[in-house]
């Protein structure tokens, strides 16, 4: 298929990652896959990149068995030696960090600086895990029985299932994988179907390290697939621990994807504006910690909204690989539809769009970062989880009411507060930034 991006000269680096036109999406010591073929698309232009053959339920059953057998071998390897292999994985990722970052941008759509930063997070956790592999211990505790002592000893749990979402298709796996490995666990990874290529590329790197060290590849198994595979993992008692990242609807009891920020009248607005902007539009609003609701004290509401709208007007939208760009496309066409539906609902419920609200007239899944004001705190759209760059700005009078509003939604991953009132800080019990700067993650810089 000459129309695939993988066959175009400017994307030759995809083949350097071991990818082909059609890739096998199951790894359990060997590569395979007997499920449907899924083509992934570049959200910046909606052109096909390459395809991945997904897992069938038979593939899943076979992989579970191989992973459980591999775990028996891995659990007996001394922790420092497990750490040495994780160190090699980190080094192997370092060597391919730019190509892997480019693939995240190509397949997911986030800007290149964020994408490389995501691979770096996996590398950083590998470094942390290496040190931890020589520090896993347990205290010697006194016993109430004469002549006895209590020893606390940590043991591997077995097989760790890791289900990741499209918006962080590498980092979330890395956080889990590196720590699980040094603890003596085997891993089974199911990434999002729309970002299957990065799952395959990362697994190829990890698999090579395992094979070079003559340990079973199934220690880090991969099973690309859809909801049927995810459901099988969730229900399978052979999966001893399951890490899930995804929507509230899918996760049900897993409450994610909302971040709230409170800005009081004594806040330093020089920190508020860039922080709120990056929190709301980073990864085009497709982060677990994206700022969805911004609570502003009534005395500074209008000033902040005006400054924020001016800051939004300076956001550079475009090609995720352009280093001057801060904001890329949404991941899929369906995401664009959800964005438009949410904007319309916000208007119907009494909100005013003070910035954005439209699709950008260019190829790809681009929408304008959007600010909505005038909605009540309990409007249904405000409580709805829309994975898009829409910021609902809400006005409050008192500390008590805004803290209550923060807690009234079903979702919630993190919250922040801007104030210089020490009493308020400790009543909130947040994490404190005591500097006068606001360093952003993954090397992102606002000029």
Q: How many helices in DSSP terms?
A: 14
Helix content: 25-40%
Describe the main β-sheet briefly: 6 strands, mixed
Gross geometry: globular
CATH class category of the largest domain: Alpha Beta
Number of domains: 2
CATH superfamily of the largest domain: Aldehyde Dehydrogenase, Chain A, domain 1
Gross CATH architecture of the largest domain: 3-Layer(aba) Sandwich
Distance between the termini: 42 Å
EC number: 1.2.1.3, 1.2.1.31, 1.2.1.8
Pfam families: Aldedh
Subunit structure: Homotetramer.
GO molecular function: betaine-aldehyde dehydrogenase (NAD+) activity; L-aminoadipate-semialdehyde dehydrogenase [NAD(P)+] activity
Secondary structure: elements and pairs:
Layout lengths: L12 H4 L5 E3 L1 E2 L3 E2 L4 E6 L4 E7 L3 H18 L4 H17 L1 H11 L4 H21 L7 E3 L6 E3 L7 E5 L7 H12 L3 E5 L5 H17 L7 E4 L3 H9 L5 E4 L3 H4 L7 E5 L5 H13 L9 E7 L3 H13 L19 H16 L3 E4 L14 E4 L16 E7 L2 H8 L7 E5 L3 H7 L19
Parallel strand pairs: 1-5, 8-9, 8-11, 9-10, 12-13, 12-17, 13-16, 15-16
Antiparallel strand pairs: 2-3, 2-10, 4-5, 6-7, 14-15
Please outline what is shown here.
The protein is of the alpha/beta class. The chain has 14 helices and 17 strands. Helix 3 (79-95) packs antiparallel against helix 5.
Write up this protein.
The protein is of the alpha/beta class and 447 residues long. It has helices at 13-16, 57-74, 79-95, 97-107, 112-132, 171-182, 196-212, 227-235, 248-251, 269-281, 301-313, 333-348, 399-406, 422-428, and strands at 22-24, 26-27, 31-32, 37-42, 47-53, 140-142, 149-151, 159-163, 186-190, 220-223, 241-244, 259-263, 291-297, 352-355, 370-373, 390-396, 414-418. The longest helix is centred in the N-terminal third of the chain and has 21 residues, at 112-132. Strand 9 (186-190), helix 7 (196-212) and strand 10 (220-223) form a beta-alpha-beta unit. The protein has two domains: 5-142 and 153-260, Aldehyde Dehydrogenase, Chain A, domain 1, CATH 3.40.605.10; 274-444, Aldehyde Dehydrogenase, Chain A, domain 2 (3-Layer(aba) Sandwich). Mean pLDDT is 89; it is low at 252-258. It is built from 14 helices and 17 strands. The strands form four sheets. Strands 3-2-10-9-8-11 form a six-stranded mixed sheet, sandwiched between helices. The chain starts with 12 loop residues before the first helix and ends in a 19-residue tail after the last helix. The radius of gyration is 23 Å and the shape is globular. Pathway: Amine and polyamine biosynthesis; betaine biosynthesis via choline pathway; betaine from betaine aldehyde: step 1/1. Belongs to the aldehyde dehydrogenase family.
């Amino acid at each position: 298929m000459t129309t695939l991006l993988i066959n175009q000269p400017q994307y030759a680096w995809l083949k350097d990652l071991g990818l082909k036109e059609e890739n096998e999406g199951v790894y359990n010591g060997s590569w395979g896959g007997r499920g449907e073929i899924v083509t992934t698309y570049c959200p910046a232009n909606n052109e096909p990149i390459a395809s991945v053959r997904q897992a069938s339920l038979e593939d899943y059953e076979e992989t579970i068995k191989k992973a459980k057998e591999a775990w028996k071998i891995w659990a007996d390897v001394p922790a420092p030696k497990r750490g040495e292999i994780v160190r090699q994985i980190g080094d192997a990722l370092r060597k391919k960090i730019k190509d892997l970052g480019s693939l995240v941008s190509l397949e997911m759509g986030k800007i290149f600086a964020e994408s490389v930063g995501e691979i770096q997070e996996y590398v950083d956790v590998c470094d942390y895990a290496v040190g931890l592999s020589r520090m896993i211990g347990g205290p010697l505790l006194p016993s109430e029985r004469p002549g006895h002592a209590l020893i606390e000893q940590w043991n591997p749990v077995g097989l760790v299932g890791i289900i990741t979402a499209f918006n962080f298709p590498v980092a979330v796996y890395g956080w889990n994988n590196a720590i699980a490995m040094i603890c003596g666990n085997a891993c089974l990874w199911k990434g999002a179907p729309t970002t299957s290529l990065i799952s395959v590329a990362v697994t190829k790197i990890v698999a090579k390290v395992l094979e070079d060290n003559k340990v079973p590849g199934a220690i880090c198994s991969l099973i690309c697939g859809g909801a049927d595979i995810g459901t099988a993992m969730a229900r399978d008692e052979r999966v001893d621990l399951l890490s899930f990242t995804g929507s509230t609807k899918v996760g049900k009891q897993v409450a994610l994807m909302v971040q709230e920020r409170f800005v009081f009248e004594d806040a330093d607005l020089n920190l508020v504006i860039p922080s709120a902007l990056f929190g709301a539009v980073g990864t085009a609003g497709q982060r677990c910690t994206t700022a969805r609701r911004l609570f502003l004290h009534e005395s500074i509401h209008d000033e902040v909204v005006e400054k924020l709208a001016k800051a939004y007007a300076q956001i550079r939208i475009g090609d995720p690989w352009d280093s001057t760009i801060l904001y890329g496309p949404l991941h899929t066409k369906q995401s664009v539809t959800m964005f438009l539906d949410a904007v319309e609902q916000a208007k119907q419920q009494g909100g005013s769009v003070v910035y954005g609200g439209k699709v950008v007239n260019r190829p790809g899944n681009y929408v304008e970062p959007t600010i909505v004001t005038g909605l009540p705190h309990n409007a249904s759209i405000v409580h709805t989880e829309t994975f898009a760059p829409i910021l609902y700005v809400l006005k409050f009078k008192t500390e008590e009411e805004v803290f209550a509003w923060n807690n009234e939604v079903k979702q919630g991953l993190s919250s922040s507060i801007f104030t210089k009132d020490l009493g308020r800080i400790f009543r909130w019990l947040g994490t404190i930034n005591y500097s006068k700067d606001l360093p952003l993650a993954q090397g992102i810089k606002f000029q």
